[in-house]
Specification:
Radius of gyration: 18 Å
CATH class of the largest domain: Alpha Beta
Shape: globular
CATH architecture of the largest domain: 2-Layer Sandwich
Bound molecules: L-MYO-inositol-1-phosphate
Structural class: alpha+beta
Strand order of the largest sheet: 2-1-3-4-5-6-7-8
Number of domains: 2
Distance between the termini: 43 Å
Largest sheet: 8 strands, mixed
CATH topology of the largest domain: Fructose-1,6-Bisphosphatase, Chain A, domain 1
Strand content: 25-35%
Helix content: 25-40%
Number of helices: 8
Length: about 260
């Protein structure tokens, strides 16, 4: 099915921004050996990508507002539309030359997610969705995994680290989940975790302490692929609360029970 005019705008902006990001990623792999390390370099890559996305989307859709990881909130004259953007999700992976990172763009209309794009440059995979029109990987229609039991499932989570998150809570949740599933993974990119739930690679994803821009696009991808997404209280406040549980419907129910017992 040909992409809509809106999705073409999002894809074209992403292609333009990702050209430099891919170039920078190839350079950062060389910087691993430098004493100073690549952290400042990655910050520049992040900022440059966000600047290109902001410029391209502002040109194509004048007046829309923005919520972006680096520049924060930019109010638009059109109060019904807001872009939610993470120009480089998986920043630490990028910094370490690990090819698991993504550009994530979501569009909100009157507070509802209506369009989503997650692009994984390292694998040249475009995950896209528009509300009511399904989710796609490049041009292949996506459905969440059909597995019905946790014992068959491979799930993914985000693991807090030095100076981040509630370590005891994560360990308690991981202990409960480990006893039920056939595998637990951690990629370092919420956007890719959600895209891979939408594509059936993972059966479920949960994480606490992440930002709206990490998850907004992925939420719509999973829902349009037939999955269920809630916050960790089973409600719909993920973007405000910063926590998320995404899965196929039967696995969501089992994961919620396991995580909250
Ligand atoms: C990352 C998230 C990931 C989380 C990391 C980090 P960033 O976002 O995508 O799921 O575990 O701690 O927050 O910072 O790379 O945009």
């Amino acid at each position: 099915m040909p992409a809509s005019a809106l999705m073409n705008v999002m894809i074209n902006a992403t292609r333009k921004a990702s050209r430099r990001l891919i170039r920078d990623f190839n350079e950062v792999e060389q910087l691993q050996v430098s004493v100073k390390g690549p952290s400042d370099f990655v910050t520049q890559a992040d900022l440059a990508c966000e600047k290109t996305l902001f410029e391209e989307l502002s040109k194509a859709r004048e007046g829309y507002g923005f919520l972006m990881e680096e520049q924060g909130t930019i109010q638009g004259s059109d109060k019904t539309h807001r872009w939610i953007i993470d120009p480089l999700d998986g920043t630490t992976n990028f910094l370490h030359g690990i090819p698991l990172f993504a550009i994530s763009i979501a569009l909100e209309r009157d507070g509802e997610l209506v369009a989503a794009l997650v692009y994984n440059p390292a694998m040249d995979e475009f995950y896209t969705a528009e509300r009511g029109k399904g989710a796609f990987l490049n041009d292949r229609r996506l459905r969440v995994a059909g597995r019905k039991t946790l014992s068959q499932s491979v799930v993914v989570t985000g693991i807090p680290h030095r100076g981040r998150g509630n370590h005891d809570q994560q360990l308690q949740e991981q202990r409960a989940v480990m006893q039920e599933v056939s595998g637990v993974r951690r990629t370092g990119s919420a956007a890719l975790d959600l895209a891979w739930v939408a594509s059936g690679r993972f059966d479920a994803y949960w994480e606490r302490g992440i930002q709206a821009w990490d998850m907004a696009a992925g939420i719509l991808l999973v829902r349009e692929a037939g999955g269920m997404v809630t916050d960790m209280d089973g409600k719909d406040d993920m973007l405000k609360k910063g926590d998320i549980l995404a899965a196929s419907v039967p696995i969501h129910k089992s994961m919620y029970k396991t995580l909250t017992k």
